[in-house]
Design goal:
The complex is a heterodimer. By secondary structure, chain A is an all-beta fold. Chain A contains no helices and 10 strands. In chain A, 0% of the residues lie in helices and 56% in strands. By secondary structure, chain B is an all-beta fold. The chains are: A mainly beta, B mainly beta.
Chain lengths: 113, 116
């Protein structure tokens, strides 16, 4: 299977940018997703990037993909207190059966006012 | 609301009891996934359906777990003889190959199970 690693915690001040990093092991990953999870809730899809792209911008979100290093990052511009949550990157690999996603432990983002 | 729904949202049960959870996917989605998330961890894949066929089961899915999707719409996940280690959030997700966002999985709110 795929191993996914993320830093467990990130703290930023409101208005600053946040950068959440993710590394994965399977170079055949095709789509790489970012999900957000608020306390006690399910996962909310934020954005995704296809493996033949190296950058994708979606409003305040910028995803960067370094396929050679198997490194993915999510930048949140002008971070707000409402962005406080756990963020998961989730690769979907070509080898994975029928689209299952692999998750790491996620990054807890705390935004201070 | 046309998102994925799950019922119940919370379940408390005593060890040894059976529990059943339901998931209603987004209506046009033919693929349905179950994941389990324990405290402080990311979701782990349990099983997958395409229409009514269960096509994959994780090693995490012991004999006490069974999932069905009888008409290719809603799905149920049953846990028999629950154990304290089954306490977790059970998440359902659905996807469709026909969408532009190919295979993007949309998650429901989850069912939080506590086994006493």
């Amino acid at each position: 299977g795929e191993d996914v690693e993320q830093s467990l915690f990130l703290s930023v001040r409101e208005g600053d940018s946040s950068v959440i990093n993710c590394t994965y092991t399977d170079s055949s990953s095709t789509y790489l997703y970012w999900y957000k999870q608020e306390p006690g809730a399910g996962l909310q899809l934020l954005t995704y990037i296809f493996s033949n792209m190296d950058m994708k911008q979606d409003q305040r979100l910028t995803v960067l993909l370094n396929k050679k290093d198997k490194h993915l990052s999510l930048r949140i511009a002008d971070t707000q207190t409402g962005d406080s949550a756990i963020y998961f990157c989730a690769p979907r690999t070509r080898g994975s059966t029928l689209g299952r996603l692999y998750f790491g432990r996620g990054t807890q983002l705390t935004v201070w006012p | 609301d046309t998102g994925v729904s799950q019922d119940p949202r919370h379940k408390i049960t005593k060890r040894g009891q059976n529990v059943t959870f339901r998931c209603d996917p987004i209506s046009e989605h033919n693929r349905l996934y179950w994941y389990r998330q324990t405290l402080g961890q990311g979701p782990e894949f349990l099983t997958y359906f395409q229409n009514e066929a269960q096509l994959e089961k994780s090693r995490l899915l012991s004999d006490r777990f069974s999932a069905e999707r009888p008409k290719g719409s809603f799905s149920t996940l049953e846990i028999q003889r629950t154990e304290q280690g089954d306490s977790a959030m059970y998440l359902c997700a659905s996807s469709s190959r026909t969408a532009r966002e190919e295979e993007t999985q949309y998650f429901g709110p989850g069912t939080r199970l506590l086994v006493l």
